[in-house]
């Protein structure tokens, strides 16, 4: 697949950014749909007042150039709003936003909404997370806002607002707004009567919600930038037979959900992650079975892209077979949480892979730009060729991801030792992910041996054995590791030894002969 064809297949391209005046048309379209019956969209002057007075607080998500969700806020003094009764009108001041206090110590959430066509992708959670990052960056005490309780109108005849809220907190009743806010770590401060008089669904009640910034007085980054401390999740995958591709995807989504639940930024799966589906083609010879397995690849890739969006996490899918121009390749997909994706083909094919499955090697080595920096992917055998990772390091790689599949311990140790060497040589982090267990009656996939791990460079600032974490051998599990990317900068400039700096470029270099795209 060429770059043009791949671009045409990109369904989403999500970007988190600040709102601009020219975004009003998109904002009006969304608000008219979301607040139908409650006055619809704000006027252009009201929208412009927010951007003029506090541009940093107006955040949006765009998809392929179109705004699909937004979070609006002003600055206030927390005590003034927490200790007195107020209404939504007191906040927006007739659209003039004069309640904004430039020296305020809290972020007041004026509004948050998502295009109904994009519901189910958890974009609201991204906007809440962006607000939290903004609160930390500006060193504010908290986020407060008056939340609606649109489910209360159906229960107002038989319970008080306090009783209704308690049932929502106890998960006895689901409220589409309040339940979501509670799940996002906001807690209830008090009930406010006549908060939005025209809000019939809430019987005009509102709930003052608060999120406290535990990093208050500590310097934090602004949303959308490269994280200095990204969290990686590594899946050590149990090979178990699946009857249907839906069963496989259900198991994969379980791990994506679990790892994303720990606020990880990227998750890595092992090589030939969909191999358990080979059981459905066991009547064929291995080469034919692998070609049949490739028929699932497009469906699986699309599902992983959707998971990356839904769970707000970058996913390296491990690898799977792909049939292209009648040649069979082994390819790993990088599914970004902004909805885009890319692919890295395995370049070096082992004799066994060639003999049993007829796999061919790819001819491109890519560096992937992500919101946690530049990453590289080398599939199993490829990590045993140091020229590849050196080429990636020259392009700025800080994290190398290695999905692998090995049957015996000696095969595994080749991958592990080489991965550790790549971390030292290139002063980067290296994560390896493998499979465990067995697939009975599937030829050439009998047994697996794995101990997934995350490796570091070897210097004083890193673990003494240069291992950030490692899994229990041959046990299905996950690893979650925080990576300090700023340490890599210090290492490359001030380390005890400096492998990248010390190379004798006047004597030797790594040259990539193929045309790079």
Q: Terminal Cα separation, in Å?
A: 13 Å
Task: Please report the total strand number as a whole number.
Answer: 22
Low-confidence regions? 218-222
Task: Determine the strand fraction and express it as a percent band.
Answer: 15-25%
**CATH hierarchy class name of the largest domain:** Alpha Beta
Count of distinct structural domains: 2
User: What general form does the structure show?
Assistant: globular
Largest sheet: 9 strands, mixed
Question: Which structural class fits the helix and strand makeup?
Answer: alpha/beta
And the CATH topology of the largest domain? Nitrilase/N-carbamoyl-D-aminoacid amidohydrolase
Number of helices: 16
What's the CATH H-level superfamily name of the largest domain? Carbon-nitrogen hydrolase
* Average pLDDT taken over every residue: 90
- Rg over CA atoms, rounded to whole Å, is 26 Å
In the CATH hierarchy, what is the architecture of the largest domain at level 2? 4-Layer Sandwich
Q: Can you give the helix content as a percent range?
A: 25-40%
Explain what you see.
Helices cover 30% and strands 24% of the residues. It has helices at residues 3-8, 24-34, 44-53, 78-82, 88-92, 123-137, 161-169, 178-183, 245-260, 286-293, 297-310, 351-357, 386-394, 409-426, 485-494, 499-502; strands at 14-18, 59-63, 66-76, 106-114, 142-148, 187-192, 206-212, 231-239, 266-268, 314-324, 327-335, 341-345, 359-360, 368-370, 373-377, 399-403, 429-433, 435-438, 447-448, 453-455, 467-470, 477-482. Helix 9 (245-260) packs parallel to helix 11 and helix 13 runs parallel beside helix 14.
